[in-house]
Amino acid sequence: MSSNTPPVAKKVPTKRTHHGDTVIDEYAWLGNKEDPDTTAYLEAENAFLKQQTGHLSGLQEQVFQEIKGRTQETDLSVASRKGAWWYFTRTEEGKQYAVSCRVPADGDAPPEIIPGVRLADEQVILDGNELAGDNAFFSIGTSAVSPDGTMLAYSTDYKGDERFTLRFKNLETGELLPDEITDIFYGGAWSADGSTFFYTRVDDAWRPYQVYRHALGSQEDALVYEESDEKYWVGIGLTRSERYLVLGAGSKITSEVRILDATDPTGEFRVVRPRTTGVEYGVEHAGDFFYVLHNENAENFELATAPLDDPGTWTPLIAHRDDTRLLEIDAFSDHAVVHFRRDGLTGLRVLPYSADGRSWRERVEASERNAYEIDFPEPLYDVNPAGNPEFTTRRLRLAYTSMVTPPSVYDYALDTHELILLKQRPVLGGYDPGDYEQFREWAMAEDGTRVPVSIVKRKDAAKPAPTLLYGYGSYETSIDPGFSVPRLSLLDRGFVFAVAHVRGGGEMGRRWYEDGKLTRKRNTFTDFVAVARHMKATGWSERVIARGGSAGGLLMGAVTNLAPEEFAGVVAEVPFVDALNTILDPSLPLTVIEWDEWGDPLHNPDVYAYMKSYSPYENVDGRPYPPILAITSLNDTRVLYHEPAKWIAKLRATASGGPFLLKTEMGAGHGGRSGRYDAWREEAFALAWIIERGTA
Q1: Is 656 a catalytic residue?
Q2: Hey, which of 72, 366, 481, 504 would disulfide with 524, CB 3.0 to 4.6 Å?
Q3: 434 DSSP 8-state letter
Q4: Is the residue at 234 inside a domain?
């Protein structure tokens, strides 16, 4: 097949019947990854893509050089104190991966560390470049130092399939232990004495369902917990206080927590409170009591306290509010910090308390009376606690950014209430935040709901302008207003960038999420179309290019079916576009877990009919569609490569317009290529395509 000719996928009719509905899927055969015809088809699509976009190579290289030129390649993170060490990472020019390091700790203020200059007492913990070697893909799933600072547990993946191999390194000698454990999942936790490491495994549906205990030097690991309910994931962690191991099991709507004294790793975990459908909760150890963040009779969550000997008995501390979604609680020896969301923005609330002879309950109640929120000056921003591993501290580390302010790391001094800027990510090439401006708009959805929109542009950019409109809208995930170096390549070419904070996300609280899931999922799609129309009607935009990934890729496919005329182009990355067929098949990775998000079309005919009404693959028709670029990865375990492959094949066979392009990374996973230079080059390709669509 000539690369100048669009690939034509063969049609192999596959019949399926559900709830009396018979459907013929002509491209189901693409789901067979081992079929040589599948590989040949994907390679033909890549060849066609290269031919169709070859003229963009100069622009792609230009954008790549812009990204590279604005990035301080030899850089480092702000050091975080943990025990006797300050931990940080370095990046070096010309190297794909970060290097994890540490230096001995002295005092509360982080040491002055200079990019490119190694300290005399600096110790390299883990060098991603050495580990990656010549492999095309490399990822670290776990990197955890034992509480005493002597051992490192780390895991690696060389395929992108998110199955990791766990190893252990003696940080005092630099030697690797012979212990090696294959096929584990992300995360893990040490016991208090560093003798034992807990990790998780996944089942055939890629669900983490088992927790194992590995004693260093042992040949056989003990199964600690196995979750039989296919809707539940499990995970394991160690509290900041290092007092408790916390084993969590959770579905999309329900959770259950078990705790164990971390000094007794072979002991039995005890349940905090048995699972109740619809009740989510998390436990944070605060010295002589627990904090519990939960949603029992509290849609936006409530903060409660509980005694150590009866953690299932909860006493309210911060009551539920309709306008404030409580996100998480971080507990320290003499204060706590509540991360919350209000009016579409994140915030931090500090609860100070002191050991003054009163009972823990009296101290905590006083802390809420004396609580205060930290103020930030910009109209749009995102803030969250970051890098606070030490339980006893008088400083709070936080991360801050906005659409014009590069990611910044602050220490907040609890004694003086001073925000101390430790580092702002350098943006080279003369970047001046004063050249840009950000706005919050509100679009009107078709049912009268006001949908927030975050917008950024150059001050001197003309209006209306070509616009990249981004959206996600699932899992209560919020796309908060943040900074992006690659985005500058659009803004400096006169583009407007906007985020549609559609329902299904969490920007406006739990109700915002509930109104964009299950049988209200169509609100996600109609909200996005309403925002696109609002951007044009109010003079912001002329040509709108839509972009989204994963569940945001479902959004891209759905809005293209709903209103193809509104978009000058669509970029769908690892897109969940064959949603109905995937959620119908419980043998596929993560499907059963997803029924709480989308509904169960396998057993419920109403859910089946509703999902069929919006699933992108099911609803492609003969209308003119905009140009579409779908990007996927062969080893993706979350959204399988065949979903966009089938979608593009059907678009090409059914719709007019286009062109419809498919790009498959043949050696990567859900996050795409792993090295930073490779990732920049791939982003430059997508941006070059977007720039052409916006200026065509």
Answers
A1: no
A2: 504
A3: G
A4: no
What is residue 452's DSSP assignment?
E
Rounded distance between C-alpha atoms, residue 155 and residue 186, angstroms: 8
What distance in Å separates the CA atoms of residue 644 and residue 27, rounded to the nearest whole number?
Answer: 11
Read off the tokens for 655.
Answer: 């719709």
Distance of CA 440 to the CA centre of its chain: 23
Residue with the two structure tokens 């007092």: 243
Angstrom distance (rounded) from CA 513 to CA 211 = 30
Q: How confident is the model at residue 366 (pLDDT cuts 50, 70, 90)?
A: very high
The one catalytic residue in 330, 636, 642, 674 is 636
Domain that holds residue 690: 40-69+446-695
Quick one: tokens of 148? 């005493």
With respect to residue 482, please indicate whether it lies within any of the assigned structural domains: yes
| Predicted confidence (pLDDT) at residue 114 exceeds the cutoff of 90 | no
- The pLDDT value recorded for residue 696 is 81
Total domains, the chain: 1
pLDDT digits (tens, 9 = 90+) for 527-557: 999 999 999 999 999 999 999 999 999 999 9
What confidence category does residue 673 fall into, taking pLDDT thresholds of 50, 70 and 90?
low
Q: What is the pTM of this model?
A: 0.92
Extract the tokens encoding 271: 């349940």
Tokens, residue 389: 């591993």
Q: Does position 170 have pLDDT exceeding 60, yes or no?
A: yes
pLDDT digits (tens, 9 = 90+) for 368-425: 999 999 999 999 999 999 989 999 999 999 999 999 999 999 999 999 999 999 999 9
* DSSP symbol at 475: T
Question: Which residue in the list 214, 339, 534, 670 is annotated as catalytic?
Answer: 670
Report the alpha-carbon distance of residue 408 to residue 626 in Å, rounded.
38
Let me know the angle formed at the C-alpha of 456 by 450 and 458, rounded to the nearest 5 degrees.
145
Decide if 116 is inside a domain: no
- pLDDT at 66 (0 to 100): 97
Category of 155 on φ-ψ map: left (φ > 0), alpha (ψ -120 to 50) or beta: beta
| pLDDT of 14 | 94
Half-sphere exposure of 9 (CA within 13 A, CB side): 29
What are φ and ψ of residue 167, in 5° steps? Answer: -135, 170
Mean pLDDT score, 194-205: 95
Is 550 tagged catalytic? Answer: yes
1 confidence band (pLDDT: 50, 70, 90): very low
Q: Which residues contact 474 (CB under 8 A, 6 or more apart)?
A: 504, 505, 516, 517, 524, 551, 552, 554, 555, 597
Catalytic residue status for 633? no
140, 185 contact by CB (below 8 A): no
List of residues 6+ apart from 117 with CB closer than 8 A? none
Among the listed residues 550, 615, 633, 674, the single catalytic one is 550
What token pair was written down for 468?
């990249």
Chain Cα centroid distance, residue 622: 35
Domain holding 558: CATH number? 3.40.50.1820
Say if CB 571 and CB 631 are below 8 A apart: yes
Whether 551 is in a domain gets the answer yes
* Region of 278 on the Ramachandran plot (φ > 0 left; ψ -120 to 50 alpha; else beta): left
**Burial level of 22, CB count in 10 A (0-12/13-18/19+)?**
exposed
Give the pLDDT mean for 92-113: 87
Q: What's the per-residue H, E or C state across 329-360? A: EEECCCEEEEEEEECCEEEEEEEECCCCCCCH
Would you state the structure tokens that stand for residue 217, as one six-digit string? 């030097």
Residues 336, 635: Cα–Cα separation, whole Å: 41
